[in-house]
User: What shape does this take?
Amino acid sequence: QLYQQVRPNYPQEIVHWLLEDLQLTEQSQIIDLGSGTGKFLDYLKQATPNIIAVEPIAEMLEQLKIVHPDVQTIQAKSDEIPLKNEYVDAIVCAQSFHWFANAESLREIHRILKP
Assistant: This one.
């Protein structure tokens, strides 16, 4: 709860980056990897409703579901995401990649990303 309350938000300009630079659309399927309590979801929702929040810590997901009950969640580690190959258009890691910056996670990210 404390993390959710004190963690700062992101600048609204990030939505422009998602739409223009990443070229996400309403049809895009996105993973918020290492989603924590869901602080980045408000921005992703402005690009697409098709979001999967992936987080290994159950307590973080509990907080996420309070604020974003409409978002699909998966409790999983970054190197073991239970999705089929080439499933998503984009994977974002909003201030979380440093927790799993390793070859195993990169292989898993590559596996589930569409070409």
